[in-house]
């Protein structure tokens, strides 16, 4: 299955500054990558993709936030909603975050303790790091 790209305009005519791609990682595991800003306008795009993939994954959804340059409160709300949906479907939500733009808001709000946070996609997939 090829990667799916998604970047819709919001209802108020402002183009979200986020690009979301979805690709299979291995059987039962889907990789969702976000790049750009996860703010009021970009969060719905990310949430729609995460929710859709949690509904179809049988093992886990790996959410790669390595390309995120800004994570606002709307983005944090997407993560919390995703965690709740993952629990409902009995699927893991693995968050990849290694930048200050994502780690700082998670730490400041105390949300970092609610998620399995990995430093890389390879770590989240349980693959050995490239040498």
Helix-strand category: alpha/beta
**Could you describe the largest sheet, including whether it forms a barrel?**
6 strands, mixed
Helix and strand run? EEEHEHEHEH
**Number of continuous helical runs:** 4
- Beta content comes to 25-35%
Rounded to an integer in angstroms, the radius of gyration calculated over CA atoms is 14 Å
How many angstroms does the end-to-end distance come to?
A: 28 Å
Provide the low-confidence segments as ranges.
4-11
Helix content: 25-40%
Mean pLDDT, all residues: 89
Beta strand count: 6
Describe the structure.
Helices cover 35% and strands 32% of the residues. It has helices spanning 43-56, 73-89, 100-109, 121-125; strands at 4-6, 18-26, 29-38, 60-71, 92-96, 116-118. The longest helix has 17 residues, at 73-89. It is globular and about 30 Å long. 33% of the residues are buried.
Keywords:
single chain, 131 residues, 4 helices, globular
In short:
35% of the residues lie in helices and 32% in strands.
Question: Secondary-structure map with pairings?
Answer:
Layout: E1 4-6, E2 18-26, E3 29-38, H1 43-56, E4 60-71, H2 73-89, E5 92-96, H3 100-109, E6 116-118, H4 121-125
Parallel strand pairs: 3-4, 4-5, 5-6
Antiparallel strand pairs: 1-2, 2-3
Helix pairs in contact: 1-2
